[in-house]
Amino acid sequence: MKSKTRIFTSLMAAVILPFVTACAAISPSPTGTPSASDQTPSSAASSSSSENPTTVIDQDREGNPITLPETINKVISMGPSNTEILVALGCGNMIIAVDDYSNNVAGLKPDIPMFSMMTPDGEQIIDLDPDMLIVTGMSKAGGDDPFKIVTDAGICVIYIPSSSSIEGVKDDIRYIAEVVGEKETGDEIIADMEQEIDAIRAIGHTISEKKAVYFEISAAPYMYSFGSGMFLNEMIDLVGAVNIFADQEEWISVADEAVLSANPDVILTSVNYIDDPIDEIKSRDGWSEITAVQNDAVYYIDTDSSNRPSQNIIKALQEMAKAIYPDKY
Predict the structure, then answer these.
(1) DSSP state of 110
(2) In sequence order, which residues have a C-beta less than 8 Å from that of residue 252 and are 6 or more positions away?
(3) What does the pLDDT look like over 83-97, one tens digit per residue?
């Protein structure tokens, strides 16, 4: 049971992203049609309100109709990627509660209240009197909306589905930035991401002999990886390598035989719930015959930055590039 709980934790993190400055209170208009290109930035100030840009947001990223409050001073973030984005936008001081997976996000207030993002205590959330909740779509993984009681209480709940592509991650950042009136900061974050992506892509295009890569997100005996349609697969492509499971789609259960047959040149792991995931991989029966193991090319990639769809995927991209092609990056 403990092993299955750990696997669930790993996969939850996989599909669901260091500084704090004061963030302005903003005054959004409640109706209208969203247009990302028309919104103008607001200025951040911890002690004064700033006028909301003229563009109005009336849907969340899931397509649900929403009405933003007239001012936004208190936000609850459910989902570590949402929390990371809000902090990077300079809105850490707005956050009054988070999900328990956000416990290690730098820039939050000390002793901030934490809730389960799957089974939250809606009454306690309502008692905190938030202006708005920003919630990961993973919260609906069970089929029901665990925050319906909050919505029914008249509190704005914004759902952000867990983005599976790099472009989707950038769109999430743009959207959240507009919601909190920090479009200019959001644009800067995205520009920084694109600059690093372009630099890595340029090197990746020069690599003709592409290495085969196996990326493990859950360890034996319940091994999981991913195929196409995931930002991690995009990142392997960007660095100039090939995912051994690129012919499959999304999250996949992995058998020993499939990895042994593919014989990857490099093995990456984001597993952090066992003491030594690299040694565990190397010590598996039969895996000593894999090229990656023979060449000691098994590397750990930061769990949070590789699993959370936020701007911090760039850290994982950099780690992946250096691990796969240390002589190129």
Answers:
(1) T
(2) 224, 225, 226, 227, 245
(3) 999 999 999 999 999
Distances (CA, A) of 137 to 22, 131, 161, 295, 309: 27, 19, 4, 40, 12
For residues 308 and 13, the answer to whether their CB atoms sit within 8 Å is yes
Question: Structural domains in the chain?
Answer: 16-192 (3.40.50.1980), 206-324 (3.40.50.1980)
Q: Are 41 and 66 in contact (CB under 8 A)?
A: no
How many angstroms separate the CA atoms of 150 and 130, rounded?
10
- pLDDT by residue (tens digit) across 225-263? 999 999 999 999 999 999 999 999 989 999 999 999 999
Q: Which are the contacts of 141, defined by CB distance < 8 A and separation ≥ 6?
A: 118
* Element holding 159 (H helix, E strand): strand 156-160
Segment 54-69, tens digit of pLDDT: 467 999 999 999 999 9
Distance CA 39, CA 65 (A): 19
